[in-house]
Amino acid sequence: MRNIYGSNVLVTGASSGIGREISTLFASEGYNVFATSRHIEEKEEVLGKGRIISYRADVTDPDSLLKLREKMESLSIIIHAAGFGIAGSAEDMEIDLARKQLDVNYFGPMTVNKIFLPMLRENERSLIIFISSIAGRVPIPFQSHYSSSKYALEAYSEALGMEGRKYGLRTVLLEPGDTKTDFTARRKTFIPEGSIYKEDAIRAIRKMEKDEENGKSPLTVAKAALKVAERKNPPVRKPIGIEYSALMLLLRILPQNLVEKILMRLY
């Protein structure tokens, strides 16, 4: 069932990585994609049967989002792909950096939704897809604040989905694991000199970087988003890849103490 939610899509974080792949794929399949990012070049591209209309906007800046809304006549799908990561010990992390993490990854989607949900409710059916993470189900050592931002996003998405169901709204959490994008290079690392966690943090972060550099293509996530957008009753959450689906099932079965030992051994 193609375009069952309509053909106008808003994608945040669309200048690179997963957001860019989603924008390109949806446009090539006939959608009109409003692609936003802080650094995007404002232009219009025709791709296949659809198009990408790029606007510069920041998910943490309501004024930029309101200006974008004024340029849109209708909207039926929102895909939240904006985000970044921070790394370092839970104890050492600067509070301001942790706040910035939550501001972009959690409050950003909330801000976008507050502005655009009234437009979605004008449709019989509408859809919001959140690009979450396996780290939103499994806390990763030395990524505690990133994991926290995704944990919060997951709870928000589920609650929003229940509240909006009577108005035709569906919400979906896509949960990628290691993905090869510029997310790795943009991760902000904070390890103060003299930290007792320095050696362990460096080792864990290097392991994360290596896994991501050898991870899945962002196109894999884009294809999962497109598949979700073609389902009348999409899943509440979907891990990306058979191996991560199996991992989520396994972690539900194993005792929590054992899960923590496995994660500590990995990182």
Would you write up a description of this structure?
The chain has 267 residues and is of the alpha/beta class. Helix content is 46%, strand content 17%. The chain has helices spanning 17-28, 62-70, 95-120, 144-164, 183-186, 198-213, 218-229, 242-253, 256-266; strands at residues 8-11, 32-37, 44-47, 50-56, 77-80, 86-87, 126-131, 169-175, 188-189, 237-239. The strands form two sheets. The chain has an eight-stranded mixed beta sheet, with helices on both faces. It has a two-stranded parallel ribbon with strand order 6-9. β7, α4 (144-164) and β8 (169-175) form a beta-alpha-beta unit. The mean pLDDT is 93.
Annotation field: number of helices: 9
What's the order of the H and E elements? EHEEEHEEHEHEHEHHEHH
- Regions with pLDDT < 50 over 5+ consecutive residues? none
Structural class: alpha/beta
Distance between the termini: 42 Å
Q: Please provide the count of β strands.
A: 10
Q: Biggest sheet, strands in spatial order?
A: 3-4-2-1-5-7-8-10
Largest sheet: 8 strands, mixed
Overall morphology: globular
What portion of the residues fall into strands of 2 or more residues? 15-25%
The overall pLDDT, averaged over residues, is 93
Helix proportion range:
40-55%
Radius of gyration: 18 Å
